[in-house]
Amino acid sequence: MLPIVDKQSAIPIYVQIEELLRERIAEGTYPVNSLIPSERDLSAQFGVSRMTVRQALLNLVKEGLLYREKGRGTFVAEEKMEQPLNGLTSFTEDMKARGFVPGTKLIGFSIVQPDAQIAAKLGLDGEASVYKIIRIRYADNTPMAIERSFLPVGLLPELTEEALQGSLYAYIEQQAHLVIGQATQRMEAALAKLDDAEYLQISLPAAVVLIERISMLDDGRPFEVVRSTYRADRYKFISEIGR
Ligand code: 16G
Question: Which residue's alpha carbon is nearest to atom 16 within ligand 1?
Answer without folding.
Answer: 167
